[in-house]
């Protein structure tokens, strides 16, 4: 599935440990507060500002902890362009992890309201997004949008039962050294084309598997998945380019690429869980 949004490199982004205020959100993503739809939209397009939807979600116990807005070259679209919020419900903050709903929208016709299931691991502040086997909800710009999005958010909460089941299953699976290397090799192929001899992966499977903290030295699939995911998305791994020049992998700052990679990694880990069951 293609994500219904495309966020460019360097998009304005804000994350916080406590719920974001309207002022904080507005500084990063003014399009959330757009007071009208873009002129390109027809009369059939029902315009409801994202901030109205967010206020409805807040009334139901959902709070935003991350916001992002894509950069645009056309300044005339800046107030309407695509934006993303990651929200948590009070019931979904569990120990060192929190289930999150990823909400996407725009007011220029490039995105419907879209909700995806996500997980935040507090120890590394690295938001995961569950794979295509988890519920993905879209709400078009028509009808009672606020209530439809709120209903969709609660539907997405139902999908967290499946996420919990998959996480518990991953924790119960132990991987030997060869299996961990195989998982990391498949993960590398998600970002670097293994058939492109001119641009091979600059780092090795062992580097993706290297723990960044003591508690991540365990060999269960969930921990291995977390190590690989963090090393791939945060970057900073030293390696060699195809011509032998020393390089350091870049963090994935594009929201679109981050979500796509996270979903692919989740599906890869869940496939290994099923294979080992």
What does it look like?
The chain has 277 residues and is an alpha+beta fold. It folds into two domains: 154 residues, no CATH class; 100 residues, no CATH class. 36% of the residues lie in helices and 18% in strands. It is built from seven helices and ten strands. The strands form two sheets. Strands 1, 2, 3, 4, 5, 6, 7 and 8 form an eight-stranded antiparallel beta sheet that branches. A two-stranded antiparallel sheet has the order 9-10. Strand 6 and strand 7 form a beta hairpin. Helix 2 crosses helix 3, helix 4 runs parallel beside helix 6 and helix 4 runs antiparallel to helix 7. It starts with 12 loop residues before the first strand and ends with a helix.
Radius of gyration from the alpha-carbon trace, in angstroms: 20 Å
Oligomer designation: single chain
Structural class: alpha+beta
Strand composition percent: 15-25%
Task: Please work out how many helical segments DSSP would assign.
Answer: 7
**What's the mean pLDDT score?**
79
Which of globular, elongated, flat, extended, rod-shaped describes the shape?
A: globular
Characterize the largest beta sheet: strand count, sense, and whether it forms a barrel: 8 strands, antiparallel
Q: Quick one: how many beta strands?
A: 10
Along the chain, the helix and strand elements come as EHHEEEEEEEHHHHEEH
Number of domains: 2
Given as residue ranges, the uncertain stretches (5+ residues, pLDDT < 50) are 1-10
Percentage of residues in helical conformation = 25-40%
Q: Give the distance, in angstroms, between the N- and C-terminal Cα atoms.
A: 26 Å
